[in-house]
Amino acid sequence: MELKTFFDHLADAITSRGTVAVRDQLEELADEVRDSQPGAAAALTDWEGAEIARERAFSVIRREQLHRLAREQVHAFSVIGA
């Protein structure tokens, strides 16, 4: 699944059912980004914390991962065009 689509589907699920409803997916996402975004990964999986804190952590991770993807695509296009 394309990264943007993955994040869009997860965001829709969080909006309609909350973070607890997609706990397994958020745990997996946190594992994937823990090295590059340790604070956001920790907040995303703090099940004793506030819902809004997990939602914010998801937003931070989503933004950074999509920006990383965009930078990679720009770099790939610049290499092809060179």
- What is the count of structural domains? 1
Mean of residue pLDDT values: 93
Order of helices and strands: HHHH
Structural class: mainly alpha
Kindly list the characteristics that best describe this protein.
4 helices
Question: Can you tell me about this structure?
Answer:
There is one protein chain. The chain has helices spanning 3-17, 23-33, 38-44, 51-81. The chain is elongated, with a radius of gyration of 14 Å. It is built from four helices and no strands. With 82 residues, the chain is mainly alpha-helical. The longest helix is centred in the last third of the chain and has 31 residues, at 51-81. The termini are far apart. Helix 1 runs antiparallel to helix 4 and helix 3 packs across helix 4 (51-81). It has one domain.
Summarize the structure.
With 82 residues, the protein is mainly α. It contains four helices and no strands.
Topology, element by element:
Elements (H helix, E strand, L loop, with lengths): L2 H15 L5 H11 L4 H7 L6 H31 L1
Helix pairs in contact: 1-4, 2-3, 3-4
